[in-house]
Fold this sequence. Notes:
This protein is an all-beta fold. The protein has no helices and 14 strands.
Amino acid sequence: MVGKTKSWVGWREWVALPELCIDSIKAKIDTGARSSALHAFKLEKFEEDGRLRVRFSVHPLQDRNDKAIVCVADVIDERWVSDSGGHREWRVVIRTPVQVGKRAWPIEITLTNRSSMSFRMLMGRTALQGLLVDPEASYLLKKTAAPPRPRDNKSDIKIKSPKGKGKATKSE
Length: 172
């Protein structure tokens, strides 16, 4: 990356997935993993306007199941993914922007149940463009809130993301 400043991150950071209405989620920064993964459950694939989409729920806070966010995104692929234990799983793949500190860029994320894992999100090396990882540090970047979203008159937040790429419902 000639001419661009790289940001230092720790082995774990707070990130946001604004198009999925996830304002903050702890992510493990894992250079040993190729792909990124997001904790997801209740996956339901469907077709809308000729596009394959997926509706899924996320518990963004570790060890808490009282807060769930329902997300919708385009399916860009489905593929076999091997976890660190060598187990293979067929996963849905989506593309959505990730925000780390003040920077945001689109990444591919596989959807899988990570409820037994220490982190609800894993950022693999293909998503780490422009980042340098300090394996001895944690939370080097300030937690940056995703841009504000319009609220309706109900207790839930319902948003259609820009360019029709996804929508989400946030409920507590």
